[in-house]
Design goal:
With 569 residues, this protein is of the alpha/beta class. The chain is built from 16 helices and 17 strands. Bound molecules: manganese (II) ion (MN). The site of manganese (II) ion (MN) has 5 residues, from loops.
């Protein structure tokens, strides 16, 4: 046993004072002895001391309780490494050998190596009890030295780690359950959105077909079709917003921030919002930007926010009103985009509730549709991009919705290789030549819709395939001018099919347009990155569809013209 630490040879001066000192010293000694005794007999931690060879010399009550051995059974008989999990000892020996760049043999040396070199060593391990049961422990090991500094033994202090381990295991299990539930939720939502879009695609597609068909619908049919379309597009917005919000809330929405030119975004939004504004007689004016502002943001999402705010400013305006878009740098490093309307304006109490989901300020009773999710989604998106969103409004004075984003520097000009550009074509005086479109789609309603749309174009011959394998066969045999490809196909997916077509020199030049119900911006980005010429989402918007088809056909024609020139020269 170690010394008490109190030197009994210090000062003995005799007399009364000496008597008192002696009494105090004895008291102190007793106290220290009691403490030492308490430590050694504590049942809460195991104390094992060994000689310099690692043979156990001391095995306290705690060690006896935890490990089930009596001290007499182990003292002078075994090493602490003998009551450790041998595989752990082996693993530790290997890890230490790697860490220290020397070979350490599995056994007591494994436990004592660091301590013998004066390095603090605390580790987790599994003890094996006398009855063969095991428990996790945290042990610390220290070398014991004599007055000359030579190692005379080792001290191992261990505590039972089962409770903590159990909590850890439970926590891990709970986290895995939560993670799976979250994954399942996202998965469900994305599948649900896909499932809802498919029938909606048929409703919207065929309604548009009737609307624009020949013979023209009667006025009463036209009214009915308008109602179907209005409700259908509304339902589509609803599905998109709910999906967006769910993705954001579950942390699944991934943004790809990059330097985005505000001038470009505004121009695109202007084109997109113009029909809606004209339809309602609202004049929208965009700022002419003197300096090109670049913000660090996700391009698609900035557009989404701006379109949403513009659309609201048009919807909730007064007849013949205006929408004024501004773009100013108030705070250094930040740009504020404001959308000012000449609508009714909002009372302070309304403003408070504005960014709450499903809250439309009693407008549910008015003619305007909307879920109120749009603004919530905008707020979350702006915040995810490191910005802020807000509104200034007063009843009778209209509203200014604004958002701020961080400015960034203009991106390095890189050549825009890979981005498909439509090439304007000189008119062919020879007139129309028959062109071929191949549509790969497993959904019969969609095939029928596209067949009906293409039937209006005598200059286009339509081939269809129900799956990608058949589609690739037809593509190789007929070499169509343009391919229209669904993504979710039985067997080979549309993306895989695109890869196969791109690898085949015979079909590599054919522009492939994706037409998919996977409408999350990330799907679209992925699709374009995979090499699709354009990416259209279902439900088909007839005008957009025909326009894109035109661009793809023009592109195909200009390409074959160029290939012809190359062959001729
Ligand atoms: Mn499909």
């Amino acid at each position: 046993m170690p010394e008490t630490g109190i030197d009994p040879t210090v000062g003995d001066e005799g007399g009364k004072a000496a008597g008192i000192t002696e009494a105090r010293r004895r008291e102190a000694l007793l106290k220290t002895g009691a403490l030492q005794n308490a430590i050694l007999t504590s049942a809460d931690f195991s104390i094992i001391a060994t000689d310099e060879k690692g043979i156990i010399q001391l095995f306290n009550v705690g060690a006896e309780r935890m490990l089930g051995y009596r001290a007499a059974e182990v003292v002078n008989r075994i090493r602490p490494s003998d009551i450790h999990d041998p595989e752990e000892v082996m693993a530790r020996a290997q890890a230490l050998s790697l860490e220290l760049g020397t070979t350490i043999t599995p056994g007591f040396e494994t436990l004592a190596f660091k301590a013998s070199r004066g390095i603090e060593d605390v580790y987790e391990l599994t003890y094996i009890c006398k009855d063969g049961s095991r428990f996790p422990a945290i042990a610390s090991i220290t070398a014991l030295r004599d007055d000359y500094g030579d190692v005379i033994g080792y001290l191992l202090i261990g505590t039972d780690n089962s409770a903590r381990k159990r909590v850890e295991v439970e926590l891990r299990a709970a986290m895995s359950v939560a993670k799976n539930a979250n994954l399942a939720k996202s998965e469900f939502l994305s599948r649900m959105s896909h499932e809802l879009r498919t029938p909606l695609g048929a409703i919207l597609g065929f309604a548009q077909l009737i609307e624009s068909g020949a013979p023209q619908p009667t006025p009463s049919q036209k009214r009915s079709v308008d109602q179907i379309l209005k409700a259908g597009w509304y339902l589509l917005d609803l599905i998109n917003e709910v999906l967006d919000l769910a993705l954001i809330e579950s942390g699944k929405l991934s943004l790809s921030p990059e330097p985005v030119s505000l001038a470009d975004v505004m121009l695109e939004c202007q084109t997109m919002i113009e029909p809606q504004a004209q339809g309602r007689g609202i004049r929208v004016s965009f700022p002419r930007l003197e300096t090109p502002h670049f913000v660090k943001a996700d391009r698609t999402r900035v557009k989404q926010v701006l379109i949403n705010l513009l659309s609201n400013a048009i919807k909730y305006n007064t007849p013949g009103g205006t929408v004024l878009v501004s773009c100013v740098v108030n705070t250094p490093g930040r740009v504020r985009i404001g959308i000012e309307d000449t609508g009714e304006g909002l009372a302070p109490a309304d403003i408070e509730q504005l960014f709450q989901p499903f809250n439309r300020l009693g407008r549910a009773a008015t003619v305007e549709e909307g879920t109120g999710i749009g603004l919530v989604v905008c707020k979350r998106l702006v915040e995810l991009m490191g910005g802020v969103i807000g509104v200034e409004s007063a009843v009778g004075r209209g509203s200014v919705f604004w958002f701020e984003l961080n400015l960034t520097t203009k991106p390095q000009p890189s050549d825009s290789a890979g981005t498909a550009v439509a090439i304007a074509l000189e008119q062919d005086p020879a007139g129309t030549q028959l062109r071929t479109l191949l549509y790969v789609e497993d959904n019969p309603a969609n095939r029928m819709l596209v067949e009906d749309l293409i039937a209006r174009r005598p200059d286009i011959r339509l081939l269809t395939a129900e799956d990608a394998t058949r589609g690739i066969e037809i593509a190789r045999a007929s070499l169509p001018d343009v391919i229209l490809m669904d993504i979710n196909l039985p067997g080979i997916s549309g993306i895989q099919a695109l890869g196969i077509l791109a690898e085949d020199p015979a079909t590599a030049h054919i522009p492939v347009v994706a037409l998919s119900a996977n409408a999350v911006p990330r799907d679209i980005e992925r699709g374009l990155k995979a090499g699709f010429f354009r990416y259209l989402t279902k439900p088909i918007k007839v005008n957009e569809f025909m326009h894109t088809l035109e661009i793809a056909l023009d592109f195909a024609e200009s390409q074959s013209a160029r290939m012809g020139e190359a062959e001729a020269s």
